[in-house]
């Protein structure tokens, strides 16, 4: 199956997830996220503002703020498919300008260098256990990750795992995936050849 077919099939599967299950699983992932050592030791964390059926992030962002951590979110540049991360202290610093996604308003938020982001939460639609993923097809994260050297992690519903994800030359894997059931250490899976 092609990347596009795998992506579309998963989108269909996720779209029928009931709101209650969506909330329950998202909260389970959120709780595992906050128990994680890397999360606890990171002060600046990059996330996207989720839209259904992505694992919820607004609740996570609010809890990070409550803990005194810094939250940075991406603004996309469609012309060169690059992203810049801005620090937000409130959801009022967000606006919709691109693809109906909430992004930081650069007039209301400050730009942060990638090297200052301790942990980056990478969005996606389908993942394998070695951390390779299929996203929305923009290639934004594939490009960004080339020069991002700190910790990476994805949040996913257990049903988003599939061994059908075959990496292409430009794909870069995440270090860890947190699902509603488990924490997957992708780096060691890659070393052991587990897909
Ligand atoms: N909530 C959330 N925010 C996010 C992401 C995400 O996955 N989730 N992104 C994760 O990367 C970035 C935005 N990703 C995007 C990916 C694709 C397209 C886009 O233009 N898609 C075209 C098809 C592109 C193609 O075929 O090459 C389209 O849908 O028409 C836009 C944004 C940043 N913000
Ligand atoms: N590092 C890169 N440099 C240049 N082009 C790239 C790079 N990475 C990906 N691309 C291009 O971007 C397009 C989208 O890539 P892909 O289908 O892997 O996106 P995705 O992983 O689903 O999206 P995302 O990374 O935004 O979550 C592809 O056509 C690919 O050729």
UniProtKB/TrEMBL annotation:
Substrate binds at residues 49, 54. Its cofactor is Mg(2+). SUPFAM superfamilies: NagB/RpiA/CoA transferase-like. NCBIfam families: MTHFS_bact (TIGR02727). One of its GO terms (molecular function) is ATP binding. Keywords: ATP-binding, Ligase, Magnesium, Metal-binding, Nucleotide-binding. One of its GO terms (biological process) is tetrahydrofolate interconversion. ATP binds at residues 3-7, 133-141. It is an enzyme of class 6 (ligase). It catalyses: (6S)-5-formyl-5,6,7,8-tetrahydrofolate + ATP = (6R)-5,10-methenyltetrahydrofolate + ADP + phosphate. Its EC number is 6.3.3.2. Belongs to the 5-formyltetrahydrofolate cyclo-ligase family. Pfam families: 5-FTHF_cyc-lig. It comes from Psychrobacillus insolitus. This is 5-formyltetrahydrofolate cyclo-ligase.
């Amino acid at each position: 199956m092609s990347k596009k077919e795998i992506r579309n099939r998963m989108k269909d599967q996720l779209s029928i997830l009931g709101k209650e299950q969506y909330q329950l699983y998202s909260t389970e992932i959120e709780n595992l996220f906050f128990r994680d050592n890397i999360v606890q030791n990171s002060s600046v964390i990059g996330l996207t503002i989720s839209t259904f059926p992505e694992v919820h992030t607004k609740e996570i962002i609010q809890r990070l703020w409550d803990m005194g951590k810094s939250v940075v979110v991406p603004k996309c540049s469609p012309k060169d498919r690059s992203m810049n991360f801005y620090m937000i202290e409130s959801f009022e610093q967000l606006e919709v300008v691109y693809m109906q996604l909430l992004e930081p308003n650069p007039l209301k938020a400050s730009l942060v260098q990638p090297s200052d982001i301790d942990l980056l939460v990478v969005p996606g639609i389908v993942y394998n256990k070695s951390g390779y993923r299929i996203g929305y097809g923009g290639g934004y994260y594939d490009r960004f990750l080339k020069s991002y050297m700190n910790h990476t992690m994805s949040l996913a519903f257990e049903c988003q795992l599939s061994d059908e994800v075959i990496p292409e030359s430009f794909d870069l894997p995440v270090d860890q995936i947190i699902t509603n059931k488990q924490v997957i250490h992708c780096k060691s899976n890659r070393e052991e050849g587990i897909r």
